[in-house]
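Review session, final week

We close the course with one last complete record, chosen because it touches almost every idea we covered. It is Sulfate transport system permease protein CysT, a protein from Prosthecodimorpha hirschii with 284 residues. Go through it on your own first, then we will talk.
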Amino acid sequence: MAQALVLGRRTSGPGVLPGFGLSIGFTLVYLSLIVLIPLGALALKAAGLGVDGLLKIAFDARVLAALKISFGVAFAAALINAIFGVLVAWVLVRYDFPGRALVDAAVDLPFALPTAVAGIALAALYAGNGWVGALLEPYGIKVAYTPLGIMVALVFVGLPFVVRTVQPLMQELDREIEEASATLGASRLQTITRVLLPPLLPAVLTGFALAFARGVGEYGSVIFIAGNMPYVSEIAPLLIVIKLEEFDYRGATGIALIMLLVSFAMLLVINLIQAWSRKRYGHV
């Protein structure tokens, strides 16, 4: 017993891993070169603006409109993916139907497809003379070259993050839990909301955060379908590119820093909610 306890204590420490010092050193160096140093350089460059200069950029009407579109539409698209991504994962896990493997592979298509190709395809499909756009336009619904088109593009690129995050946990859910719930008199809605969804909530939040982060920084698939009209359908990443093309490096870094701070704050809140859900519902 004592030996088992000693072994348990040893395995809980990092020293049992061979090459731990080298591994952690490589990890820190790699993260510094790829993440910390570039972000630090961005913050240092933007610091030259001062607080007043940064606030002036942040409250510029065009910048505010672009930030509102980028973060608002990305949040809405991630929310849509969190709902329908769970449904897609459920169908892939719980049902066996002809073409299931093809549908499962199609979920990963946004990962492999170049974003510019996706943007051109969506713009052609949802334009006024496109297959889908022509059907919607008589009802006054215009998708291409509007914020709605941006949402369509972000839903397209963000769906795999939710599906692939939730799908493994769904595969581990025991169907006997559903049968036991039904035996105890629970309705289907009660089984879904009280038995199935709580264990999946941390994974859903993770997929939501990944889809949201991807949507905020998405550029290639959006610019072709957005229309890029200032104050209407111009996203913040495009505004940064415009500033760079105008050699306004300080303005570009200022907008980039604002996006970084807002993204960090929103992801922090999402991670706190995720940690609470894990503590409350645990892991499957």
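Two points worth writing down before the exam:
Confidence is low (pLDDT under 50) at residues 1-11.
Residues 31 and 37 are 8 Å apart (CA to CA).
Good luck, everyone.
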